[in-house]
Amino acid sequence: MRTQFRQTATALAEADDKVIVLLGDVSVYQFEQFKARFPRRFYNLGILEPTLISVAGGLASRGLRVFAHTIAPFLTERAYEQIKLDLCYNEFGANIVTCGASFDYAWDGATHHAYGDLAILRLLPGMEVIQPGSKAELAALLTSRYASGTPSYFRLSDHPHAIDTGPTRFGEGVVLKRGGSGVTVMTAGPLLANVLPAAAEFDVNLVYFHTLKPIDRELVRAFADTRILIVHDAFGLREAVNEVPGLRSWYHGLPDRFCSWYGKLDQMRARLGLDVAGIRAAIAALIAGKTASPSARRGDLAPRRTPAASSSRKRGTA
Amino acid sequence: MIEPCRRIRADILRVAHRSGHGHVPTCFSVVEALYAVYAAIRHDPSNPDWPERDLFVLSKGHASLALYCTLAAYGYFDVVEVEGFGAYESRFGCHPDRLKVPGIEVSTGSLGHGIGLAAGMALALKIEGSPRRVVTLVGDGEANEGTVWEALMVAADQRLGNLAVLYDHNRSQRRCLQIENPGERLEAFGCAVTEVDGHDVAALEAALAEATGERPRAIVAHTVKGHGCATLVEDMFAWHRRSPDAPTLAALMEELHADAV
């Protein structure tokens, strides 16, 4: 997806001399040709996420169309206040484009996992929150929103799906399947690659989103009389869907724990029940009338040791 | 003290009294700096959005009252309106909002933000090939924030000679993390540094006018928190957010005008 980001940004820069790329020393090789072609519109500022956002805001204040890019947890969680104040409160409409979605960097551990970004950015007034699932969606959404004048968040993954979800329109969800069981599965982003085959075996509705803010309330409302299973490998979609009041919804996604395993994305998803089999089981459970959140039951943790300081404190208080 | 700056201080005291809000000592430390900025930069109070204007960013946003009174002194609006300072439905908040007050370029308040935005603005002007420039004012307490130094590194690395950083060295952090050698540190971070008496408008204007080539300009303004009123200087921590009652206002006004003839 980063290659698509570079291709789209380059195409936009060809036609629009206000396009600026700011990097936090990530994806630098991707943008070598961009730098050579537009040397005054490419800046690798360094590893300083808060200032990356502030500078993006300053550039946007002068009407430039900025893509500020680095790894998701650092740019969204460390620099959250800069996004809130320097972009949203000041109404300086820079674009934030991250890589390292959810467990893309599974092997790097919890410091590099990013599953809170969508949820926390949704809270910011004026912020657009976009989770494209495929390269085609990214190209369409970047092109349609990069000059929106509002702060926009684009969350890239190195593991996009390749499913044709039809015309991609900002703010609009897509119905990929209709069924009669009274259950609707809702999902977003690259996880569709697992959700689509899992849902195929059931007589359920399947609704897909690439825009989490604004969420397509009309589409959610259209399924309000069904039981809704929200399947997502992050926080944010559940909250977005439930902007529509009165839903009967269940979340199959992440536990309230650090997911401190390593390995690869597929292994993380399998452990969390977000592989095809796990999602299939969750759908079957809801159809069967079992309404406890599958996520809440998964309290098992990766191997860990108890550091000495913790154990001595326990002894002292026993 | 020059008379325009004395009048601005008197306005600050009056507004602080009537509004019930303060930050008076920190405002008093930057009055000359603000007055000098608007004497030095290109701007048009009758046309705050003039496209050729230079840009000023008050990074230490809690000195907003000093900025409002300075902008009023330059004719942006009537200072009487500022008396609604911090009140419901007033456009003059205790931290400045660019979407409400003419002359405010950036909404600030949380420390360590304005300077990064100012660096971005300076970079934008450099990209445009514009002769316009950006001036920002940071506090020495604000300089406890790491983002101040991130922004300085970027400004130096991007050779933003069109950026000037006024550093209000009023020793506000002497009970915790006081930076004793800001000039050396700013120099080490790549700035061209000038140190001036921060209550000398002519010296400040001269420093703002100095050419720096491609290096960002840093001006360490040696100031006194509460400058102009001995009571505020002597007890600056207690007065940090205090608003003077009527008898105290009279006493402070007397102190302010003690050396005026």
Observed structural traits:
A: about 325 residues; alpha/beta; Rossmann fold; seven-stranded mixed sheet; five-stranded mixed sheet; 12 strands; B: about 260 residues; 10 helices; 5 strands; about 40% helix; globular
Summarize the structure.
The complex is a heterodimer of chains A (318) and B (261). Chain A has 318 residues and is an alpha/beta fold.
Tell me what the structure shows.
The complex is a heterodimer of chains A (318) and B (261). Chain A is of the alpha/beta class and 318 residues long. Chain A folds into two domains: 2-155, Rossmann fold; 174-297, 3-Layer(aba) Sandwich (Rossmann fold), CATH 3.40.50. Helix content of chain A is 38%, strand content 17%. In chain A, helix 1 (2-15) runs parallel beside helix 7 and helix 3 packs parallel to helix 5 (80-89). Chain A is globular and about 60 Å long. The termini of chain A are far apart. Chain B is α/β, with parallel strands linked by helices and 261 residues long. Chain B has one domain (3-256): Rossmann fold, CATH 3.40.50. Chain B has ten helices and five strands. Chain B has helices spanning 3-19, 24-40, 64-73, 79-82, 114-128, 146-157, 182-188, 201-209, 230-234, 246-256; strands at 55-58, 134-139, 163-169, 192-197, 217-222. In chain B, strands 1-2-3-5-4 form a five-stranded parallel β-sheet, sandwiched between helices. Chain B is globular. The N and C termini of chain B lie close together (11 Å). The chains are: A alpha/beta (318), B alpha/beta (261). The A-B interface holds A 20, 40-41, 43, 45-46, 48, 50-51, 53-62, 64, 81-82, 85-86, 89-92 and B 98-99, 105-107, 109-110, 112-113, 115-125, 127-128, 147, 150-151, 153-154, 157-158.
